[in-house]
Amino acid sequence: MAAEHLLVLAFGGPTPGCCKRFETCPGEATCFVSGIFGDNPARQARVTEVVAHYKELGGFSRFNEITEAQAAAVGDELARRGIKLKISVGYDHWMPHIADQVVQLARDGVREFITLVMTPHQSSVSWDSYLRRVSEGLDRLLDDKRPKWAGVCDPIWNKLGFIDALAERVREAAGKLGADLTNSTTGLLLTAHAVPMPIVRTSKYVEQIKETAQLVAEKVRASNWIVGYQSAPSDSKIEWTTPYLTKAMDQLHEAGATKIVAAPIGFLCDNVEVLYDLGIEGHQHAKKLGVPFVAAQAVNTHPAFIRMLADNVQKALG
Amino acid sequence: MTFTVHALASGSRGRVELACVRDPEIACLTVEAETDARLFLAALREEIRSHAGVGHSILGRMKSDPRTRFDFMVLAGQHFPLVGNFTRYMELLLLRAPGSEAKCWLAKVLVDEYGQRSQGQDHSEHYRKFMHAAGHAPGEEDNVKLHPEVIHFIREHYRICIEEPFLVGLGALGPGHEWSIPAMFALAVAGLRKAGFAENEIEYWTMHIDQDQDHGAWLEEALVSYCATDEQRAQIRRGALLSLDARERFWWGVTDKVTSGATRKNLPPGAGATNETGQLTLRELRKLWRIEPMLIEEAHHGG
User: pLDDT digit string (tens) for A171-213?
Assistant: First the structure.
């Protein structure tokens, strides 16, 4: 029997509506961020710092809206290919939660499903964390009610459609600055989420990011490019992946960049981290350096990206 | 030693009657010096309380994002080596203690570790009981592949206790452990209860919250004598922070294992993000490591 359902897994972001985790709602952004760091007085300062980023951008995230648009677009693309598949989306850190969506599959009578992980690079705190939630949902079900988890779509860090979509986003952004990427006076900053070194040690996260960056840089024929990491917590005392994005911008500048184009290659949608860290922090740092700066969109629903995801789902269906 | 201290923990300058401390190596503290020492210790406590190693998300999320018994089985496999080695760090540090003030504190903690206040069972035995409740087979507790950060934590503490100045070691095992563990374990206990563990299965954890509060209080009295100079304070603080940095790395290692554990259990090899190739077990580590005090004899250049 072939899988009849695709469950799309993603990090999630706060949307209007109380999650009911606290008796008195502290606001969606606070609930979301403290859910990630934990309800712990030791991390309160960091929670406040990140919540302020959300508030500066309106208090909510478009993460879920964009992810759901991506899922719908994949469904449409599959339908065009004659593949009928029901699709639902679950989040690690917001409603609807992945585990709840797995339970819902059982309620809906789904017998077999596959999963698509919406993160381009693999580490335990993203890829494995979302998959763990699927296990959590299955564990809540009695054996005879449990749908079969028939497979996980391949990771996408080096898939052509992803690279093509990223390259086009970079070119669009460079166009806004009138920047020639082949000239070393244009610095290309390719960013991904920072992760702590203990997480890096057991996965291929950094290698995968480097490969994505290399492929994108080759595609746009960039001559002065670098990978930078963003969103590392300010209160951590240990080493995270480096260089941090502002240091990476310094390095581009030192290598001759008089304008900088940034692109979030480690993110699949314009979430608050992308919009804040690149759109605000990146701009502020560029101002200090005295260079024009533009941030590219994430891939979002770029057609090449969506077609690649559909290929990936089709392959997992067998 | 017979000093009496009144209400200095709040930072107020209370009346202090101070006789000479017992160790001849340690200078008598003036009232002002003792007050400064206690203020330093209060600030250090606060720094420890808000350290990202103490407030790691794997602990902070245990209330809102309940963990399963399986998750705790994975966690226990990584945590057990720390439990088993703690006594050794203390024994090594005891040998280097410059005077009886520190020796007394280390010895008091050690007899608890050996089981004095836990029905004669040492803390490793208590931990094994918890591990069995979490799902580890008896006899297999030390046969778990360890995250590199678990090994780093142990290695770093041996290094601190053997190579660093004594007060750095005291800072690591004292404030770095005794002042952080009650806060960390209180969060863990909330998660353990949510996961359905019975009280008798988690005695190791609940017992430590109480005992370490005692150890922390005894420690504060012992530490006051060692905080007379800026250099001493810097060494104690450095030790505490070295330990907590290793702790933050440790919790990330545990997060890595716990998060990928379920994937590894439910999916074919290769579907997950991590791999355990080359990781050692505690059993293997014991064969590779030899930890012993050494007699180091300088060459005699006389006459």
Answer: 999 999 999 999 999 999 999 999 999 999 999 999 999 999 9
Sequence-ordered list of residues with C-beta below 8 angstroms from that of B207, at least 6 positions apart, any chain: B117, B118, B126
pLDDT for A73: 98
Cross-chain residue pair B241–A42, CB shorter than 8 Å: no
pLDDT tens-digit series, residues A81-127 = 999 999 999 999 999 999 999 999 999 999 999 999 999 999 999 99
Q: Beta strands A112-117 and A148-152: pairing type?
A: parallel
Please name the residue of chain B whose CA is at the shortest distance from the CA of residue A236.
B52
For residue A5, the cross-strand partners are A86, A113
ipTM (interface pTM): 0.94
Q: Does A131 touch chain B (CB under 8 A)?
A: yes
DSSP state of A97: B
pLDDT reading at B20 higher than 70: no
The pLDDT value recorded for residue A306 is 98
β-pair type (A186-193, A259-264):
parallel
Please judge whether A237 and B259 are an interchain contact, meaning their C-beta atoms are less than 8 angstroms apart: no
Q: Domain residue spans in chain A?
A: 160-295
Contacts of A139 (CB under 8 A, 6+ apart): B68
Q: Is A128 on the interface with B (CB under 8 A)?
A: yes
**Mean pLDDT (whole number) for B78-98:** 93
Backbone angles phi, psi at B298, to 5 degrees: -75, 150
All domains of chain B, ordered by start, with CATH? 51-263+281-286 (1.20.910.10)
- Chain A from 137 to 176: CB within 8 A of any B CB: 138-139, 149, 152
Is the pLDDT assigned to residue A45 strictly greater than 60? Answer: yes
DSSP A186-213: EEEEEEEE--BHHHHTTBSHHHHHHHHH
**Of B177, B157, B164, which is closest to residue B51 (Cα–Cα)?**
B177
Is the CB of B187 less than 8 angstroms away from the CB of A122?
A: no
Q: Give me the architecture of the A160-295 domain, per CATH.
A: 3-Layer(aba) Sandwich (3.40)
**In 3D, which of B83, B81, B84, B104 has the Cα closest to residue B94?**
B104
Average pLDDT score over residue span A15-43: 91
The torsion angle over the Cα atoms of residues A218, A239, A197 and A208, rounded to 10 degrees, is -10
- What is residue B212's predicted lDDT score, i.e. its pLDDT? 74
